[in-house]
Amino acid sequence: MDANKVLDCKGLACPMPIVKTKKEMDTLSSGEILEVHTTDKGAKNDFTAWAESGGHQIVKDEEDNGVFKFWLKKG
After folding, report:
1. Can you give the residue ranges of the UPF0033 domain (predicted)?
2. Which of 7, 10, 29, 62 measures 20 to 30 Å from 40, CA to CA?
């Protein structure tokens, strides 16, 4: 899936992946996609709740060798 930007949050613990994602999302236009990579095991729950509360959408997520990848569409 093509993303407008990729954000590397590997090695960061909660809440830093969400903090950095919010900052990066603020630079995107509505409808653009941000791809986030994180190793935080709680990321699935964190990103799901954060996207829902912020009006964003997780269009895809996957795990690859302990790296969780999220494609977030800005609302």
Report:
1. 7-31
2. 29
